[in-house]
Structure formats: C-alpha cells, structure tokens
Amino acid sequence: QINVLQAKKKFEILDAMLSFMHAQFTFFQQGYSLLHELDPYMKKLATELDQLVIDSAVEKREMEHKHALIQQRRLSLCPFFQDFSYDDSKVEFNVDAPNGVVMEGYLFKRASNAFKTWNRRWFSIQNSQLVYQKKLKDVLTVVVEDLRLCTVKPCEDIERRFCFEVVSPTKSCMLQADSEKLRQAWIQAVQASIASAYRESPDSCYLE
C-alpha cells in the first residue's frame, strides 16, 4: 500500500509539472505572437531613428558652419569684436571703484535643478559679494555672500565654452562668459576682490 501511495504521489507531481510546462508554452507562444505583430512597427521605428540621427548630425554641422560664418563676418566688420566679441560687460575691473561695483555684465548661469538649464543674468561683484539680477531693476540675488571664503577656476571639461566656477564651502556656481577674454577678466576680478577683501579686514579674516 505504501508503494502504491508513493507511485500515486509521483504521478501527481508529474501531472503538475506537465501542466506547468503547458502553461509556460502557452505564455511564451502568446508573447511571440504579440511581438511578431509588432515586428513591422519596430522595424519602421528603427528606420526613422536612423534618419533622425543623420538629420541631427547634418543640422549640427550646418549650425556650426553658420556660427563660424557669423563670427568671421563680425570680425571683419569691427576689429573690436576680435577681442571682446559682442558682450556688453565691462572688461576692465576696478576693486577701488567709487560705487563699490568691481565688475558687472551678462553671464550665463547654470541652474542647480535636475535639468541644469542655463539662464542669462546680469552679474556684478560688489561689497565682496557675487550677485545677479534677472533684469537691471530687479532685486539683487546673492550667489556668494563672502568671496574671501571662495575659490574660482576655469572649467574645460564641460559641454559649453568659456565656463568658470566659483566654489564656496556650501555650494558652487557654474558660469559662462561670452568669450575667453571675458572669462579671464571675470576670474581675475573675483581673485582681485578676494585679495582686496583680505586687505581691508585682515583681523576679522584671521578670526574666521
């Protein structure tokens, strides 16, 4: 009787395994049928994707070519653009300016959100601070409260040209100038402001 029971148990296990295999077969067969119906659509999408890649590359080359032509035309029309491009910033900086503004002008600022968007803002260095405005008459937004606690460095390993970064103990700010001359001028202005702030209040700096 025990042998009969064991044989019956083996039969039930085999029956369950066979049912499972049939279910698996049906599942994959249905999946194959659905994907087989989508095969022409996927091939069509792949063809369109290849064309989009080609069109994007062509458009990028055309834009680069147009940009180069515009730059050449600008240089030929006015020699001043050769050094300072079409920027409205003051290339000169003055740490002893009567109004306290060491340097000011337009810069692109990379946002700190997930999208890392770039926005053009009017920046200025004043009172040992780096600030900006969306418009000239807007309230100042302080980016760096105390330049003495900061460092500034050019950034080359980035998707945009003429970028530099102002780093403070709590955050960093990525900025983009309109030319290499302007980038160097802004970096030098920040460094000069840092040095000037140390000279003006050495005792407080040592305490900090």
What structural keywords apply?
208 residues; alpha+beta; PH-domain like; 2 domains; 7-stranded antiparallel sheet; 51% helix; 21% strand; elongated; disordered C terminus
Give an overview of the whole structure.
The protein has helices spanning 2-77, 81-84, 180-200, 202-207; strands at residues 101-110, 118-126, 129-133, 141-144, 151-155, 163-167, 172-176. The chain is an alpha+beta fold. The chain folds into two domains: 1-81; 101-199, PH-domain like, CATH 2.30.29.30. A seven-stranded antiparallel β-sheet has the order 4-3-2-1-7-6-5, with helices on one face. Strand 3 (129-133) and strand 4 form a beta hairpin. The protein is elongated. The relative contact order is 0.09. Residues 100-195 form the PH domain.
What's the gist of this structure?
The protein is 51% helix and 21% strand. It has 208 residues and is an alpha+beta fold.
Topology record:
Elements: H1 2-77, H2 81-84, E1 101-110, E2 118-126, E3 129-133, E4 141-144, E5 151-155, E6 163-167, E7 172-176, H3 180-200, H4 202-207
Antiparallel strand pairs: 1-2, 1-7, 2-3, 3-4, 5-6, 6-7
